[in-house]
Predict the structure.
Amino acid sequence: MIWKLFLTFLKIGAFTFGGGYAMIPLIQREVVEQNQWLTDEDILDIIAIAESTPGPIAINSATFVGYKVAGFFGAFCCTLGVVLPSFITILLVSFVLEQFEAIKAVQYAFNGIRAGVLALILKALINMYKKCPKGWVSYVVMAAAFIGVAVFDVNVLLVIVGCAVFGLVTSLIAEKRCAK
Amino acid sequence: MIFLYLFLTFFKIGAFTFGGGYAMLPLIQKEVVSLGWMSNETILNFIAVSESTPGPFAINMATYVGQAMGGQYGLWGNLLGAFCATLGVVLPSFVIILLVAKFFETFKNSRIVAGCMTGLKPAVIGLIGSAVISTGVTVFFPAGISLAVFTTVEFLSALVIFALALVLALKKVHPILIIVISAILGITVGYLL
C-alpha cells in the first residue's frame, strides 16, 4: 500500500507541469477514481486546506492524502514521491544549462524568454485577482501589500503577518456587528 | 556554512508562502537576490525552465538555487546544496499538514483561520503585483532607467515580445508554447538587429 502511494505520487510529480493547481485533477484521477483511497469530498477538503496553510500546494496535498490514507509513513512516501521527479530533473537540467549558457543563441533566446515569462506572471496575477473575494478589506490589503513592498521595501514576512492579523481583526469585528 | 543558510532560507520561504505557484516568487526574489545568491535575470531564466519541466515551481526553484550555491564545493556540493534547500522548502508544509490533518475538524471550522485568510489572499496578490514591477524593471531596463532606453532595440523588442506573450497567455495558450515562441523571437531579434 505504502509502496503504491509512493509510486502514484511519483507519477503525479513527474507528469505535472507548472505545479500547484495543475496537480489537483491528476490527484483526483489517481486517488479517487483509480484507487478509491479517498472521495471527491476529501479532494475539496484538501484544496481548502492546501490554500489556507503555508507551502506549495503540491506538497500540502501530497502530505494530506498520504496521511489520510496511511498515516505518517503514507504522508512521508507521498511527499517524497512528489518531490523526487522534480529534484532529479532539475539537477540534470541545471548541469546541461551550465554547458550551454555561454552560447550566443542561448543568451538571445533567454532575452526573449524573460519578456515572455513576465507576461506569464502577469497572467497568473490576473487569474488570482479574478478568484479573490472582493470588498474593501481586500482592496486595502492588496494596495498596502503592494505599496509596502514595491515602494517602501518593507520586509515581505512582516507584510504577510501584518495582513493576516488585519484580516483576522476586521473579520472578527464584522462578525460581532452581525451578532448585534 | 552555505548549506545551513540554504536550508534556513528555503525553510523561511516554505513557511511563509500561501497559495502556491508564483505566490512564492516575491519571497524568492527578495531572499535570494538580496543575499547576492542570484540575479533577478537568472531567476527569470529559470522560471522558464521550471515551467517546461515537471514538478511544482517551489521544488524546482529550491533544487536549482541549492545546486548552484553548493556547486562551489564540487559535485557533491551541488547535490547537498539541492538537498538542503529542497528539504527546507518542503519541511514546514509537511509538518503543518500533519498537524492540520490530526485536528482537521477544528481547523476547518476555525474562525481564526478563516479570518487570517481574508487578509492573506489579497496580500499575496499585492505581493505578486510588486514582483511584476521588479520583474518588469529587470526585463525592460536591465541597465537602469533613463530616457534614452525607450528607443533602444532591446527595449522595443522586449516590449513587443511581452505584449504578444500576454495576448497569447490571455487566450490560454500553453505556457510552454509561449516560452518557445518568446525564445524564437529572442533569437531572431538577436541575430537580425
User: Anything to note?
Assistant: Chain B touches chain A through 108 residues (CB under 8 Å).
